[in-house]
């Protein structure tokens, strides 16, 4: 697969939304719960997971949860 066909440009174009959602489900959470916990809109979380946006707060939270970085396709400033 050559990237996320639904994403924009930049780091998000290689994000794996289905794998991220699967990871969240395995941990008993979802995008709505993350939005509520972070105080951001559900649309912001959804757009970030889909790779359309790169909300740093959302990406940092997903990374801290242990979501594999290969699924997140992080912007350079958030990579280890």
Molecular structure report:
- The protein is mostly helical and 80 residues long.
- The chain contains five helices and no strands.
- The radius of gyration is 11 Å and the shape is globular.
Task: Report on the biggest sheet.
Answer: none
What is the CA-atom radius of gyration, in angstroms? 11 Å
Structural class: mainly alpha
- Estimate percent helicity: 40-55%
* Average pLDDT: 89
Helix count, per DSSP?
Answer: 5
The H/E string reads: HHHHH
Distance between the termini: 24 Å
- Strand coverage percent: under 5%
Low-confidence stretches: none
Number of strands: 0
In one word, what is the shape? globular
Features of the shown structure:
5 helices, 80 residues, mainly alpha, single chain, globular
SSE inventory with pairings:
Blueprint: H1 17-26, H2 31-38, H3 42-50, H4 56-65, H5 69-72
Question: Could you give a short description of this structure?
Answer:
By secondary structure, the chain is mainly α. The protein contains five helices and no strands.
């Amino acid at each position: 697969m050559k990237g996320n066909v639904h994403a924009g440009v930049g780091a998000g174009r290689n994000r794996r939304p289905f794998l991220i959602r699967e990871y969240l489900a395995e941990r008993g959470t979802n995008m709505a719960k993350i939005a509520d916990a972070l105080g951001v809109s559900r649309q912001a979380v959804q757009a970030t997971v889909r790779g359309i946006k790169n909300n740093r707060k959302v990406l940092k939270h997903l990374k801290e949860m242990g979501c594999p970085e290969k699924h997140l396709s992080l912007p350079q400033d958030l990579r280890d």
